[in-house]
Amino acid sequence: MSDDMLREMWDMQTELNKKTFDSNSEYHTGCVDTDGDEIDYETLMEYGKDLKQQLATHGKLLISFFGSPSQVNVNKWIQQYTRAMQQECSELMDSTNWKWWREKVDKFDLQNIWVELIDIWHFLMSAMQVAGMTPEDLHKMYMEKNQVNFNRQESGYIEKDENDSRHLAPKEDKPRPTPEIKADYDEGIVDFKMPGE
Question: Is 144 exposed, middle or buried (0-12, 13-18, 19+ CB in 10 A)?
């Protein structure tokens, strides 16, 4: 898949999510900011980018149930997209002949299998977007995780070592300074550097 093809699908999914989110307020009841006002889709996407930046800066991000609005809203939407993917996976399974105990053979519906796989991809892209991922992040992390998987296979995959994937996290070239720091930075007051520089 070319970068252009992935970007086109990503952008189309963004538009669909925005339309769905903004036109169906019952789907995002409870998605509020610190003032208790309902958020729009762009705000949800900004929350994901902010959490991505925190992860890139600190290397780890654990979200508490009573966290910031960005944490709570992103967590809620990832849960919802995960539930949707689980349902689509069930529909995918129903399109195969998986009931081995039955005498009557169910049909193997390849056309519907393709449809269900696309539905899963829709929800997976949506979850990635809410988590602050970009197509470039997807490609980079896929390549890195694929190498981890090859290493596991070559070592016989005797034991799963969760630490072999701990290095897979976003790494920002430049931090996104807060408005207060940015104002000082623009005035030349702050020498803003990434942690560890």
Answer: middle
